[in-house]
């Protein structure tokens, strides 16, 4: 029956974990998937999460089905976290929101909703480069995928002029995917002034902003600062789509906790939109999982846990920042590796887009047992004081060929 089914390639990001696990060398390092590791290279369960789980065990919660759009308190708290408690559409009860299977699930619900109900073009513009999964995800949702310039290899920074030109040339009514903070894979974000300009360009061209916010709190250590772009666009009168993930900022990777929301013009419009979100979700997975949403909601609704969580997010962000500084120093000063490495320090979020070429990435895997995506992206969280020197020396060797 399946004789004509061709074997597919391994996933460019998750496939790396498989290769890493199969490697038996004790020096091996996995810098592929964006998952936080502590100073000992171990996965990190946040104290706020552990305490929330204790509270939940004491409360003896049941295991009933959630409604189709998920745990209502959780989705309200998630929206408050993203849009801010003073958000106009939030206070007018005009944000349609549904729980989702983390960020990917949110993107997929959003893609399906736009394909079905968006009155403009079914075209979505993605930055080049973008998170690899965005492309098949939006294609499979029924949208036409196009690209806009984002990263400038020459300056190793944002190609802001190219970006604006591409968006100005996009057909009126197209959708534009924006990484709200900590752009994946480049770690290069627009400045607040550039976000303001972008908001004007999108308004002028009647383009629809679709935010992917997978790293709120992780970029700068502040959930408020990282929400700047989303809140600014909303304050300028844009209706936005927003995907949230609690994988990174709460370390709830495997719990699959997220939310998808759309700002609307009124409570009545929100109700109609939400009814259609239900119609999309029900035949897809019926209703979302309970446990992770309860954890996130317990943290978001308990002031003490909330505070502890915020300081832990900051702790994770700060450790990543210190690894950036150390790596830049090792390559620039200690090893004097050919090339310039300042971008490792200026990029933000989980990743650094190192500029290493595919051949060098392959050499690092083959010779040094160091795994990263073939575009030269490294997950900074995989580095710690025990492996960073070995990593820098291996990069030095790969660069010198
Ligand atoms: C990543 O880019 O490594 C993360 O977003 C994890 C994933 O699912 O790809």
UniProtKB/TrEMBL annotation:
Going by the record, the broad EC class of this enzyme is transferase
Which residues does the UniProt record annotate as the domain Aminotransferase class I/classII large? Answer: 27-394
Q: Does the keyword Transferase apply?
A: yes
What domain of life does the native source organism fall in? Eukaryota
Q: Which GO terms describe its cellular component?
A: mitochondrion
GO biological process entries: L-aspartate catabolic process
Q: What terms describe the molecular function in GO for this protein?
A: L-aspartate:2-oxoglutarate aminotransferase activity; pyridoxal phosphate binding
Q: Which cofactor does it need?
A: pyridoxal 5'-phosphate
**Acetylation keyword on record:** no
What UniProt keywords apply to this chain's record, in alphabetical order?
A: Aminotransferase, Pyridoxal phosphate, Transferase
Pfam families recorded for this chain? Aminotran_1_2 (PF00155)
Alphabetical list of InterPro entries matching this protein = Aminotransferase_I/II_large, Asp_trans, NHTrfase_class1_PyrdxlP-BS, PyrdxlP-dep_Trfase, PyrdxlP-dep_Trfase_major, PyrdxlP-dep_Trfase_small
The protein's annotated catalytic reaction(s) are: L-aspartate + 2-oxoglutarate = oxaloacetate + L-glutamate
| This enzyme's EC code(s) | 2.6.1.1
Family of the protein in this entry: Belongs to the class-I pyridoxal-phosphate-dependent aminotransferase family.
Q: What else is known?
A: In eukaryotes there are cytoplasmic, mitochondrial and chloroplastic isozymes.
Assembly notes: Homodimer.
Q: What is this protein called?
A: Aspartate aminotransferase
Species source reads Boletus edulis BED1
Q: What is the lineage of its organism?
A: Eukaryota, Fungi, Dikarya, Basidiomycota, Agaricomycotina
């Amino acid at each position: 029956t399946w004789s004509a089914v061709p074997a597919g390639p391994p996933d460019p990001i998750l496939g790396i974990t498989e290769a890493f696990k199969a490697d038996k060398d004790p020096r091996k390092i996995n810098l592929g998937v964006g998952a936080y590791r502590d100073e000992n290279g171990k996965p990190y369960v946040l104290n706020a999460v552990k305490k929330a789980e204790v509270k939940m065990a004491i409360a003896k919660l049941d295991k009933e089905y959630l409604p189709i759009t998920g745990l209502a308190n959780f989705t309200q708290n998630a929206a408050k976290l993203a849009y801010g408690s003073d958000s106009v559409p939030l206070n007018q009860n005009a944000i349609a929101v549904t729980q989702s299977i983390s960020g990917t699930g949110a993107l997929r619900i959003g893609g399906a909703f736009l394909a079905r109900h968006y009155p403009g073009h079914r075209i979505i513009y993605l930055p080049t480069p973008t998170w690899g999964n965005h492309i098949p995800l939006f294609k499979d949702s029924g949208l036409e995928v196009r690209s806009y310039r984002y990263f400038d290899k020459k300056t190793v920074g944002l190609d802001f002029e190219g970006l604006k030109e591409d968006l100005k040339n996009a057909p009126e009514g197209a959708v534009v995917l924006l990484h709200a903070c900590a752009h994946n894979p480049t770690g290069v974000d627009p400045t607040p002034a550039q976000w303001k300009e972008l908001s004007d360009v999108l308004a002028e061209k009647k383009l629809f902003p679709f935010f992917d916010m997978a790293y709120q709190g992780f970029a700068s250590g502040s959930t408020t600062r990282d929400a700047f772009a989303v809140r600014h666009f909303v304050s300028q009168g844009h209706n936005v789509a927003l995907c949230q993930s609690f994988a990174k900022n709460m370390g709830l990777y495997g719990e699959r906790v997220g939310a998808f929301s759309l700002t609307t013009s009124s409570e009545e419009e929100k109700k109609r939109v939400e009814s259609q979100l239900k119609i999309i979700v029900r035949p897809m997975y019926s209703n979302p999982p309970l446990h992770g949403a309860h954890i996130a909601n317990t943290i978001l609704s308990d002031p003490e846990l909330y505070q502890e969580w915020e300081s832990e997010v900051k702790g994770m962000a700060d450790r990543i920042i210190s690894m950036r500084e150390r790596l830049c120093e090792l390559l620039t000063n200690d090893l004097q590796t050919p090339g310039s490495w300042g971008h490792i320090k200026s990029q933000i979020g989980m990743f650094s887009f190192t500029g290493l070429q595919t051949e060098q990435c392959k050499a690092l895997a083959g010779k040094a047992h160091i795994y990263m995506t073939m575009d030269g992206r490294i997950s900074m969280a995989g580095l710690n004081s025990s492996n960073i020197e070995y990593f820098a020396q291996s990069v030095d060797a790969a660069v010198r060929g």
